[in-house]
Request: fold
Amino acid sequence: MIVGSHVSTRGGYREAARGAVRIGGNAVQYFPKNPRSMQLKSFDRQDAERCAEWCRNNGVVSVAHGPYLINPAAEGEVADRMAASTRNDLEIAEACGSVGVVVHFGVYKGDNLLDGYRNIVKWVDQALDGWTGSAKILLENQAGDHGPMGTTPEELTTIRSLSARPEAIGFCLDTCHLFASGQWNGTNWDEFRERAGKLAFWDGLAVVHLNDSRYPSGSGRDRHARIGEGFIGADGFRELLRTPELDKVPLILETPVGQDGTHAGQIARVRQLSGMEE
Ligand SMILES: [Zn+2]
Reply:
């Protein structure tokens, strides 16, 4: 299995990847640039290429995560700036040899949700216009904390199919968001798995954000808990982790760290819950 956590790039991209392996992982997620700003970054290409090479040589899969401010459902000048920022992230991800850039589905405050969906299709097309790299935009399902938009596999697969560049779009499934939104309630995993399969969702799945939830299913609250310590619990993860569709997908922890200040304990726990190491 491929598992790791979100790490800091304080020492550069390659050091971030190395740090992931030191805590027992073979996957890593990082912010290509300051996650609180959309300012374009002229990045250290040499460090990024060393990161790509190191990951290749050590069997590590890396994933980039875009800034929190990115909202694909936005419109106008701000949407243009967000698309340019994501394009910049794609360039950094490509140089680092990463699978792609995770972007949350989007929040729309207008009266007609359909306008929001239209904005998202337009936005991904803009961010990907002329893009020839292999790094993808990875649309992530949402927790429902801003309304129901972006919580279902139907929405993710539909945006992809309406886009001009479906091959450049993949999916990121956040387990806390799936649970908080009520899509998964701890007893319907098989049903969800089948439903997502019919949509070809699993074929497009590139990353899983493996997070437990501090609040019950259907709460709509996006608060991550350590694996096995939230409402999904050990049994929920045991069932999820034995899903063959997830075997080759990097599982990234975005949970609070353990007592040692790292995710080492949770990475070991995930391997154990998957039944790979008992
Ligand atoms: Zn996430």
In short: The two ends are 14 Å apart (CA to CA). The CA atoms of residues 9 and 15 lie 7 Å apart.
